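quick q for whoever's on today - can somebody do inverse folding on this one?? i tried earlier but teh output was garbage lol. tokens:
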């Protein structure tokens, strides 16, 4: 008999852990609270002629683990050069960088270079990205731009993002700068990871008892026993003690859990009767409320679909708007960004995906505020030889907040479980 392992959570981390365990001859059982696999990867198929990614959408890096997995699964990838083709708007329509006034183009380049430079230049003391930029001479306008171009991607405010954790991420992430979308979405990739696995759906785990005799997990009114357990639920749920542990988690783990913050993340999809933009549009941004827009079906320019993705305070504001107010305000900003008033009346449908309202996510993905950069390895550390933690927030050796980081964290925890029975 191989090592038996209960994996709590059928998101990217949990499925990757279970698949790796199964390949190695162990016996994983995945326990999932939702009636579906995928967690923060979820698709909607009825809204447009392409699947809509309500959560994760892009693969960040040509060397990301997801690129190799997609190749193994026979899933094609569509490249997209979002940052190279960025269009920025100051007052009017969004312009390609080459058409911006020199000063603004140079400012965007300087922000990018400073951000990437954090990798070499460990910020000490750890301070927010905003304070780090101010200390390097950037003004309020530049910090507001960094909030959109750098911090929003991290599901955080620029005022609350640890520079030291960003520096760690920049050093650890070896995936590279290129970006892709899996053609057909992330769904088929997860289905491929899940093939042949024993997965119990609709079973929220509420208690994990752990000790030298193994683990007992209470989920959906049943008790599951195994040699070890990997917990992959979002750290936001650990913080509100959605799962209790017996014996309770130690002080280092509790301190690490408390350090993370998970802000809301909201994706808005707008369908039109035809595209009111050119085929080259991949990504546009400004400092407005609806700050970042892209073409989710970029490789299919005939598909009249746009996505607006906002996080943190902007998402909090937007989440409080009713559909009509939200649609009106978003289309107003979009009309200015595109220089195309027709989009106000030519929208044929809007879809909202608000992760802050999801009880099994409680937000988008977790970030660390200044002064807490040690929390990622502490969250990732095994609590005992029988109790392990994975999930995007634990991906301290990779890029957290991503699918590939979550997958690598699952592989790390699986390897630790496999050592349990090694001589
Ligand atoms: C809007 C949005 C956009 C994103 N865009 C991208 C992107 O473009 N590219 C990218 O790489 N990443 C992106 N991400 C991040 C990416 O989705 C996550 O990093 C990754 O999917 C997290 O995987 P995970 O397994 O760690 O967590 P999850 O996917 O959250 O999986 C955890 C699972 O645990 C389950 N669970 C929770 N509580 C319990 C319980 N008590 N018992 C049993 N099961 C439980 C949950 O239902 C969930 O299925 C995005 C995320 C969001 C929200």
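ok took a stab at it. sequence:
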């Amino acid at each position: 008999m191989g090592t038996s392992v209960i994996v709590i959570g059928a998101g990217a981390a949990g499925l990757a852990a279970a698949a790796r365990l199964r390949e190695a001859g162990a016996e994983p059982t995945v326990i999932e609270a939702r009636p579906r696999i995928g967690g923060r990867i979820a698709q909607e198929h009825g809204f447009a002629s392409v699947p809509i990614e309500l959560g994760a959408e892009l693969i960040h890096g040509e060397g990301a683990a997801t690129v190799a997995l997609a190749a193994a699964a026979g899933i094609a990838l569509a490249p997209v050069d979002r940052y190279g083709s960025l269009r920025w708007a100051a007052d009017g329509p969004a312009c390609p960088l080459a058409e911006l006034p020199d000063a603004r183009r140079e400012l965007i380049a300087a922000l990018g270079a400073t951000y990437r430079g954090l990798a070499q230049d460990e910020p000490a003391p750890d301070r927010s990205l905003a304070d780090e930029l101010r200390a390097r001479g950037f003004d309020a306008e530049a910090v507001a731009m960094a909030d959109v171009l750098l911090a929003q991607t991290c599901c955080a405010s620029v005022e609350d993002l640890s520079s030291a954790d960003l520096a760690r991420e920049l050093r650890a992430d070896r995936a590279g700068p290129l970006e892709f979308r899996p053609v057909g979405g992330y769904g088929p990739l997860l289905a491929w990871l899940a093939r042949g696995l024993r997965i119990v759906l609709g079973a929220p785990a509420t208690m994990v008892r752990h000790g030298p005799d193994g683990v007992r997990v209470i989920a959906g009114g049943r008790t599951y026993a195994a040699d070890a357990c990997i917990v992959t639920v979002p750290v936001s749920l650990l913080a509100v003690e959605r799962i209790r542990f017996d014996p309770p988690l130690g002080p280092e783990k509790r301190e690490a859990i408390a350090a993370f913050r998970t802000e809301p993340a909201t994706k808005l999809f707008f369908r039109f009767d035809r595209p009111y933009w050119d085929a080259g549009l991949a990504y546009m941004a400004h400092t407005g409320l609806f700050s970042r827009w892209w073409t989710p079906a970029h490789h299919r320019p005939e598909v009249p679909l746009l996505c607006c993705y906002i996080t943190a305070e902007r998402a909090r504001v937007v989440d409080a708007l009713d559909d009509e107010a939200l649609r009106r305000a978003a289309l107003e900003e979009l009309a200015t960004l595109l220089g195309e008033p027709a989009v106000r009346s030519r929208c044929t449908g809007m879809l909202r995906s608000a992760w802050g309202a999801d009880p099994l996510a409680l937000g988008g993905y977790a970030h660390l505020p200044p002064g807490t950069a040690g929390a990622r390895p502490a969250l990732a550390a095994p609590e005992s030889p029988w109790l392990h933690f994975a999930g995007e927030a634990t991906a301290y050796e990779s890029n957290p907040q991503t699918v590939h980081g979550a997958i690598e964290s699952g592989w790390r925890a699986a390897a630790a479980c496999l050592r349990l029975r090694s001589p």
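fwiw The chain has a mean pLDDT of 96. also The chain has three domains: 4-40+185-261+371-421, 104-172, 264-363. so keep that in mind when u check it
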